[in-house]
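Let's sit down with a protein and look at its sequence and fold side by side. Go ahead whenever you are ready, and we will take it from there.
>
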Amino acid sequence: MQGLDEIDLEILAALAADARRPYSDIGDQVGLSGPAVSDRVTRLKAAGVINRFTIDVDRSQLRAGIPVFVRVDTADTDLETLRETVAAAEPVEHVFVSADGTLLFYARAAGVDVRPWLEDLLGDAEYSVTLIDDYEWTPSIDGTEFALTCAECGNTVDSEGETTRIDGAVYHFCCPSCASRFQERYTRHAEQA
């Protein structure tokens, strides 16, 4: 994938607002045919820009537990293992890791026995819990500068860039030399593992 243009951004915004919207409707909005929108969405998925289509379920309508936001001190634990454990827990809806390595998550805990559930989930990790009064998730790309970032050097990937799939993961590079360096280092680490 060479880069994102204005039409790609308009398509992403339309899908963020309603991922079930027909491609023909999106095409009318952006000045393309439905099949042309489909081709662009396929390209965005192949490049790893679109990871999945999902729904936002209002669990409060389903009476599915008490909404809590939990902050976990991960200083004495393996962050990645704990993140995977939390993400796999049924009541957990969103998991975040801050730049300082703090694990945060939003869940709908059962109305009783919240503390035992958290202790079972988090083990000996220190945590704090906030009861959520109101919650809104509004995915949007408006006001965001979109650009692919080079996996090797961090520069912006433009029309001279290239995209490579390595072991099933998609990587974007600003130039062939960055792609080559990254692939050589990746191969070297894979051989040493």
Residues 1-54 form a domain with the Arc Repressor Mutant, subunit A fold (CATH 1.10.10.10).
